[in-house]
Amino acid sequence: MIVEIARIQVGQRKRKLDEAKVRSLAESFESIGQLQPITVEQCEYGNYRMIAGLHRLEAAKLLGWESIEAQEFEGDAVAAELAEIDENLMRNDLTVLEQGEHLARRQELVGFKQGDNRFTIGRRATVAPLKTTLEIAKDAGISERSAHNRISVARNIVPEVKDAIRDTEIANSTTQLLELARLAPEKQVEVAKGIAEGASSIAEFIKSIDGQKREARRTERIDKINAAVE
Questions:
Q1: Number of C-beta neighbours around residue 16 at 10 A
Q2: How much is the pLDDT for 191?
Q3: pTM as predicted
Q4: Which positions ≥6 away from 15 have C-beta within 8 Å?
Q5: Exposed, middle or buried, 225 (CB in 10 Å: 0-12/13-18/19+)?
Q6: H/E element holding 101?
């Protein structure tokens, strides 16, 4: 179906908009047209809510299109969020941290949906077996072990620290994310501050902190000994 772009509402998305990808899609649209429809959900007053395909929508806007090819998704809020997560995971442009957040959230939603796998696309009732999070991870090229590691990272790093490292190289380093996830929350915050101040790696900053603390304890012991001698 064709939907007026002005009627499509875009809420808070699970991943940032990639401007370079939008420009690339716009060039593709100009060259060969829109090959894949976006997915929307009908809401009140004849409007639609974006479910999947934000970059395609933004590419159409960039070209000045007034309408876009879309397919309608009819399901509850949980099914809609699962659809968005699964599309994002298939795009292969998420960081390790973002993959972990998507997989962890998906695992929660699958728990909500157990025993209720009905949804509709294009007004045709469909009963689809709900894939497990590990099955979706495999489809996205993520091994079972990597999926478990990513979920662990997403669940064990505190939110403010995830936000602080989101745009750093650490967000795409499984090794460093796991190191961070093993730390107590207060130490995670301390490390995040160090990264913001220019530390090149988590291991390096932790080593620096531990060295400073050892030196402080050593100085304190010497001061006590000197005070006792005097």
A1: 10
A2: 87
A3: 0.69
A4: 88, 94, 98
A5: exposed
A6: helix 96-113
